[in-house]
Specification:
This protein has three domains: 317 residues, Up-down Bundle (ABC transporter transmembrane region fold); 177 residues, P-loop containing nucleotide triphosphate hydrolases (Rossmann fold, 3-Layer(aba) Sandwich), CATH 3.40.50; 72 residues, Rossmann fold (3-Layer(aba) Sandwich). It contains 18 helices and ten strands. The strands form two sheets. It has a six-stranded mixed sheet. A four-stranded antiparallel sheet has the order 2-1-4-5, with helices on one face.
Length: 594
């Protein structure tokens, strides 16, 4: 199933970091400048306690010898200012790196989703997918910010402090400092790895609960029709209950981790203070030295304690990013060939050449289907539900590739064209019209975003919807609601017709294009559609046979095979399947064949 892209079971932190690095390195000069500021800020921060020691020692002499340690005070002030200045400069420089990387990754992922096959999008769950993407992009910001702003500075500061302690004092100070840090990191690493199973479980359950909630809200009317509000709430609550159980286990393990980290830090601080105090008692350390060690401990304690939180959250961020990058690396089922060329033609003939196709290997839909639509001609397809009529349009748009045979435009296999140029030459009015949650103007203009307002109005007139639009209080600026729910089925279908007219392609597909219209409106629009279809290659998937009597050729599909073909008059004379359907519809006993 493609509903969710499962996170890999093994650790894939290296894979995530390698996937992220190219986006960061696009800002390499900013990254290097930010790192230089980071180093400068930490050097100034480590120098601070040295000046503080000199100040304390300068003020710890007898009153008769007391003098203001001016140099130490100035050095202290300059170091503190430099720490703040370089820190802020680092943040400012790296902001563009973080936000720019997120933008480029999100844009590439959004583009990649549109390149995925229709099969992927028919089987995905929008709620879970959107939550995965949201967590992944937030994880990128967290990872970049805290790696550069916390982990690297902390590790650098620890190294410099250890070097200062080793240089100025007994080697035991450096050993205790490094030993404490090593124990802290090892303990954090071990426990956090064990805790990741709870985080992954929470992510999975959260996405599932969100998917079901959004699915229920999207199908609000269906839920109300069947009175299943309580059922949907209970289903949502069951998923949240499982999520809550994982969240509780996650919190308990976090508390145990924090207690262990606190014990390690406390032990290290106690040992260092004992060594400092002993040095003063022995006479080879001054009060300023104790202040120096205490200041270093204070500087290290906060970031080191925070480092545990940051490390845990970075591991969580990496887990959140796994699913997103795995989705980004998922191959396209239908992809352009390396040598694919752009289709450019004002007139286009369409041919299905011995096409066999099935959505899965277990069930074939089309069997050896062949037909040709010469440029400027109209071909209609009728047949029972499940006969494979709509599959023809999906193959023509190349949402799927045929299993055998070929679909050709102007004699060339459509797989030799780029998908973008192919689809630019085809316009469709689908049976189930879904509109964007925007204005009527926006939805019509979607057929050609560069079209002028006059062209949009002209297309609306041709679709017989202009008068309805101008009668609305907000006219063309009327919001249609999510999926166009504020409009009736007929109004939505006329908007779809208008935007296809605006696209003005050489190939047209009408998939039950007037099924939601009343008979009077249908007849008016039918005349317009016939005018629009003139000089274009047109494929009509029809239910009402009265709408296709003028087609140049009519195909009757049955269980994926063409069982009859000919003009309306020829098919009536054969007295076959088509003739039976015509008699039923004329008698008002319309058979459900769509």
């Amino acid at each position: 199933m493609f509903s969710r892209t499962p996170a890999p079971k093994g650790r894939n932190d290296l894979y995530v970091l390698k996937s992220l690095l190219p986006y960061i390195w696009q800002f390499k000069y900013r990254v290097m400048a930010a790192l230089a500021c980071l180093v400068a800020a930490k050097v100034a921060n480590v120098v601070l306690p040295l000046f503080l020691k000199d100040i304390v020692d300068g003020l710890s002499v007898p009153a008769t010898l007391l003098a203001l340690p001016l140099a130490a005070l100035l050095g202290y002030g300059f170091a503190r200012l430099a720490t703040s200045l370089f820190g802020e400069l680092r943040d400012a420089l790296f902001a563009r790196v973080t936000q720019g990387s997120i933008r480029r990754i999100a844009t590439r992922l959004f583009s990649h989703l549109f390149s995925m096959s229709l099969r992927f999008h028919m089987q995905r769950q929008t709620g879970g997918l959107s939550r995965d993407i949201e967590r992944g992009t937030k994880g990128i910001g967290f990872l970049l910010n805290f790696t550069v702003f916390n982990i690297l500075p902390t590790l650098l500061e620890i190294s410099m402090v250890s070097a200062v302690l080793l240089w100025r004092y007994d080697y035991r100070f450096a050993i205790v400092t490094l030993g404490t840090i090593a124990a802290y990191v090892a303990f954090t690493l071990l426990v956090t790895e064990k805790r990741m199973v709870y985080r992954r479980s929470m992510n999975d359950l959260d996405s599932k609960a969100n998917s079901k909630a959004i699915d229920a809200l999207i199908n609000y009317e269906t839920v109300k029709y069947f009175g299943n509000e309580a059922y949907e709430v209970q289903r949502y609550d069951r998923n949240l209950g499982k999520w809550a159980d994982s969240a509780v286990k996650n919190q308990i393990s976090l508390n145990l981790l924090n207690m262990g980290q606190g014990a390690i830090i406390t032990l290290g601080i106690s040992l260092l203070l004992w060594l400092s105090a002993d040095g003063v008692v022995q006479g080879h350390m001054t009060v300023g030295d104790v202040v120096l060690v205490s200041a270093y401990l204070t500087q290290l304690y906060a970031p080191l304690n925070f480092l545990g939180f940051v490390y845990r959250e970075i591991k969580h961020a990496l887990a959140d990013m796994e699913r997103m990058f795995t989705l980004m690396d998922q191959g396209e089922e239908v992809a352009d060939r390396v040598d694919a060329h752009v289709l450019k033609s004002a007139n286009a003939s369409v041919a299905f050449d011995r096409v066999n196709f099935g959505y899965s290997g277990a069930r074939q839909i089309l069997f050896d289907v062949s037909f040709t639509i010469p440029a400027g001609h109209t071909l209609a397809v009728v047949g029972a539900s499940g006969a494979g009529k709509s599959t023809l349009s999906r193959l023509l748009f190349r949402f799927y590739d045929v299993d055998e045979g070929a679909v050709r435009i102007n004699g060339t296999d459509i797989r030799d064209f780029t998908q973008a140029s192919l689809r630019q030459h085809i316009g469709i009015v689908p049976q189930d019209t879904v509109l964007f949650n925007d204005t009527i103007l926006y939805n019509i203009a979607y057929g050609n975003p560069e079209a002028s307002e006059q062209d949009i109005i002209k297309a609306a007139r041709a679709a017989r919807i202009h008068d309805f639009i101008v009668s609305l209080p907000e006219g063309y600026q009327t919001q249609v609601g999510e999926r166009g729910l504020k409009l009736s089925g007929g109004e939505k279908q006329r908007v779809a017709i208008a935007r296809t007219i605006l696209k003005n392609p050489p190939i047209l597909v009408f998939d039950e294009a007037t099924s939601a219209l009343d008979t009077r409106t249908e007849r008016a629009i039918q005349q317009e559609l016939e005018l629009i279809a003139r000089n274009r290659s047109t494929l009509i998937i029809a239910h009402r046979l009265s709408t296709i009597v003028n087609a140049d050729e009519i195909l009757v599909l049955d269980r994926g095979s063409v069982i009859e073909r000919g003009t309306h008059a020829e098919l009536l004379q054969r007295n076959g399947r088509y003739a039976q359907m015509w008699v039923m519809q004329q008698a008002g006993q319309e058979e459900v064949i769509a």
